[in-house]
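Dear colleagues,

As part of the handover before I leave the project, I'm documenting each prediction I ran so the next person doesn't have to rerun anything. This entry is a single chain, and its sequence is reproduced below.
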Amino acid sequence: EDQVEKIFDKVHGGKNLIKRGHFGRYAHDKALIVRSGKDCVKVLTGSTNFSITGLYVNSNHVLVFDDETVAGWYGDIFDAVWDEDVNRAKFLDTEWSKDTYPKDAKGQHLDSKTPATDFTFSPHDKAFSTTLLDGIVTRIEKEGSKGVSKGSVLFAVMQIDGEGNPVYTALNALHKDQNVFSYGISDKPDGIYLYPIAKRDGVLVTGKPVDTQLPPPFNQVPNIGGIGHQIHHKFVVCGFNRDDAVVYCGSSNLALGGEQENGDNLLAIHDKDIATVFAIEALSLVDHFDFLDRYSQNKTESDKLAGPVANLEDAAAKEGWFLSTTDDWKNKYYDPHDLHCADRELFST
């Protein structure tokens, strides 16, 4: 950032063309605003840091709104923050910190091509932050309530191990709920659950498996080591296959500290198709890292150095790379006490 600032000032022949600040903790937004003259016509946002790691290493999402009203909100916030020198106390006194946009419940200020979306812009005070995150928890809990058939919560969240954060608590407890299909991934989950047979517990895997010894050709996949987060997403999908589907996403880490101290934007998109897109991303990440997790169990040196097994059936049996020589493999998909059965019922409708 220091280097970019120096180069930018040199090229443009002036100082103070880049203003730097961090509210209480971080300027954590990831937003680019396109203006035509004084009018804002398009805005890009999401979870992605504009960096090599953010674009090449992290798992992230990007959203682009071709909606002048939405772009105008981001533009007005940018101007306000610029004029106030990134001052947290002053921002907390603005309507941007205190309200959800659009202010009318039906989203009538949005362009007709824009899905119904709620936007909030932090930092907020503690009361608003708590209400906002408690609302997400309530929506998560609705998936396991009576009258909701095949409830589902799918998520990819950078971390869910912070204390005192209602959303993290809800996601960690979610896998014990027998009434909801849960599928999630985090870099630092509270335990690793690997799609257990004969149990309906939800699936939670880590995005940072260690000591992974993959067989060829998968051993060509590089390990990111200690250079940052693999899972940088911050999204939660509820009821992806129903008309009341919603996905919570954006730059917010879904934590009380961030909502009170960071410059962030948190979106709630009420659209079945978009929720499905995010659900597919969660499924692909969980399945990928589930595979890696299975090979991160600190194999012994003899396992690593052992040569190929001569008999292919024995080799397949050793690695678990086969269904079965009988049709017994299908039984778990019809056992109502097994998560595989819930999987079949949810995704076959």
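Residues 300-305 have pLDDT under 50 and may be disordered. Residues 272-294 form the longest helix (23 residues).

All the best with the project,
I.
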